[in-house]
Amino acid sequence: MKNEIKKVIESAEQTIKSVDSIHALMQLKSKFIGKKSELTSLMKQLGSVSKEERPEIGKILNSAKQKIQQFLQTQEQNIKNAAYNHSLQKDMIDITMPGRKLTKGGLHPITKIFREIEDNFISMGFDIAEAFDVEDEYHNFDALNTPADHPARDLSDTFYVKDDILLRTHTSPVQIRVMEKYKPPIKIIAPGRCYRNDNDASHSPAFHQVEALVVGEGINFADLRDVLNIFVKKMFGDDISSRIRPHFFPFTEPSAEIDIACVNCGGKGCNICKNSGWLELGGAGMVDPNVFDALGIDSEKYTGYAFGMGIDRVAVLKYNIPDMRMLFENDIRFLKQFS
Length: 339
Ligand code: PHE
Hints:
Layout: H1 2-18, H2 22-33, H3 38-44, H4 54-90, H5 109-122, E1 127-128, E2 134-136, H6 137-140, E3 160-162, E4 165-167, H7 172-181, E5 186-195, E6 206-216, H8 221-236, E7 242-249, E8 252-261, E9 278-287, H9 289-294, E10 303-310, H10 311-319, H11 332-335
Parallel strand pairs: 1-5
Antiparallel strand pairs: 2-4, 3-4, 5-6, 6-10, 7-8, 8-9, 9-10
Bound molecules: phenylalanine.
């Protein structure tokens, strides 16, 4: 019997050491010390052992069970350790390795200029207003005192979506939307995208303007001139000279166009300014009383000025961009130069 017990221990030790999963280990546990195990059946035979031998064999059996339990425990710990080490290995991070670089996006030159302009005007007490790229004829033309037979309404100048719905041809409809909603005093700028049926090196079918509208008591042309001066100097530097020329817009009276001295030739005349020495930036004027009246704003009490400035022009001049359409082609090689 002692021999049999010894064999059981030996075989248990060997088999237990050879398994590498907890599941298999549990099976061995029942095989070696479970109810149907050889050891258990040997224990059951203890009764038939002679009285003299019984205490000794009993001890041996008990210690055999303890040994096997010890094998099981040790192996369980081994398996767990191995699994832990394996997962450490597998998930190891080499912190000395150079990291993967994140490519950083940049702002579009137009976005940059918009932000710069917004900051400038906010510092002068303006609010930012926005409306819709898809407008109706009423806000884009009628409410701006632009008669039905005005050439700007022509299909060759304006993109119509359907009947009286169109892509706004300027940011001036934002003036109307603001005045519909708010009472004077009003002091806003409205940066945004506009659309016209134009396409060449200095015209893109989509382009950007910044509109300004200031309405209050006693607002006059000198205020307009003043703000334009500040704007031009902030955008192009203190040394730039600017001028305003009489012009016509249906929604302002008097109206003017704003020019700056050509940033390329400084006013001497070159191909960029078509030898005039001046570059046109946008239109401006005092809000026509007809516009106020149609919106129910008392034109006896209030006056106002407005201007609309082409921003793509500013970007082209500021960054020396040879073709305005490049601003809209989203060529990454072009855009990267601004990030
Ligand atoms: N909306 C005009 C244009 O696009 C510019 C303008 C704005 C003129 C405001 C006067 C006042 O040409």
